[in-house]
Write a structure and sequence with these properties.
The chain is an all-beta fold. It contains no helices and eleven strands. The model has no long low-confidence stretch (mean pLDDT 95).
Length: 117
């Protein structure tokens, strides 16, 4: 079982930036697609960015051009650079392995991102 620890969230004004980090345990990390999910209050958790083991990326339309997902397989780390943040980006952000757009492992504690207008 892979354990996931997210960090880097915080309070930022609209238009600002944050960089989220996810540390993953386990040797299977480098062979799996990884994703960032988010869950806003009262809403379902949604997948916003995916990076394959080979480095290909895909994004939810609402974050395209603003968010960038990356990974460092040597360090078992996944990152989400978030620029031009909007109040609607406010959510708890989680990372997880991805297969067929579904999470692979148990969820970590997530990291809160709050964007003020």
């Amino acid at each position: 079982q892979v354990q996931l620890v997210e960090s880097g969230g915080g309070l930022v004004q609209a238009g600002g930036s944050l960089r989220l980090s996810c540390a993953a345990s386990g040797s299977v990390f480098s062979t799996r697609a990884m994703g960032w999910y988010r869950q806003a209050p009262g809403k379902q958790r949604e997948l916003v960015a995916v990076i394959t083991s080979g480095g290909s990326t895909n994004y939810k339309d609402s974050v395209k051009g603003r968010f960038t997902i990356s990974r460092d397989n040597a360090k078992n780390m996944v990152y989400l650079q978030m620029n031009m943040l909007k109040p609607e980006d406010t959510a708890v952000y989680y990372c997880n392995g991805v297969t067929a757009s579904l999470p692979l492992w148990s969820w970590g504690q997530g990291t809160q991102v709050t964007v003020s207008s």
